[in-house]
Specification:
By secondary structure, the chain is of the alpha+beta class. It is built from two helices and seven strands.
Amino acid sequence: MQATLVIVTVSRCCAACNNEFGVYVNRPLSGKEKADGASNIVDINTDRREVSIKERCLPTAAVKTFAYDKVFAGASQQIELYKAVVLPILEEVLLGYNCTVFA
């Protein structure tokens, strides 16, 4: 049983900045996964921008926590991700700077 995660890396290069930041997007379990008895091993804290992942679905399983620049929970809409990640760099793209979004 595993969770699916998408990590979006945004890289931008302009006169004012040259940086990268990571974004974590979690999708909810599908109907088939739920029917198969899958459980979510990912705990998301959007306020702290942290993602904790259990190694197994056991109560005593080790947990690893990762920090991201932005974190989106499974209930997030695509438009939220677009407005928070893509929209801010569009102006730089239109000015001719190199900007890349990998998902």
